[in-house]
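Supplementary Note 3. Input sequence used for the single-chain structure prediction.
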Amino acid sequence: MNHAIRTGLAVSGLGLVSLLALPGMAAAQPRPPAALQETMDIGDEPGRVSTEDATVTDGPYARQMVLFRSNEAPGTVVIHSAERFLYVVQGNGRALRYGIGVGREGFTWSGQVQVSRKAEWPDWRPPPEMLQRQPYLPRFMAGGPGNPMGARALYLGSTVFRIHGTNQPETIGQAISSGCFRLANGDIADLYDRVPVGTKVIIRHKATL
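The predicted structure, written as discrete structure tokens, is reproduced below.
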């Protein structure tokens, strides 16, 4: 990675794990594969600690104001998966840009949803289907610095997906998730304070001219 990350991390030695669970898909086009219902990401590590202060501090994935052409109203969230960026439209041809981690190959999607719920330090519950195949996973993990869901979560409509933090900020800019969008904890905390429930979220594979 060619960008700097300010963070404090500790590894617990637990195995690979992942992320979330919400009711079935809606409003996202095209419909993602059924495997997404597992809501588990490759490489997540429960117990690995990342503080709320962890942010990307240098390089293209650092939070910054940028020029951004859009007809969307100020406050709208626009995600460009291929570029690994999330934008909050500010108006006057500008947007606040965050670096993100996105879905790996076969787990990308596009569509338009709204932020349906918000949570600070969200809990994590692996779904039954995943527990059947990986019985060593925790049945429940309370929210906190060691939780793979990170410091905050924005729930996207009635889909299984979220915009959330991570206890692995070094994965920002990578395609590693099962369809969710992850930010460093300091960045998701900043975004959380700017984006109310009901905010329009547009997910695109790449920028459009």
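The radius of gyration is 16 Å. Confidence is low (pLDDT under 50) at residues 7-42.
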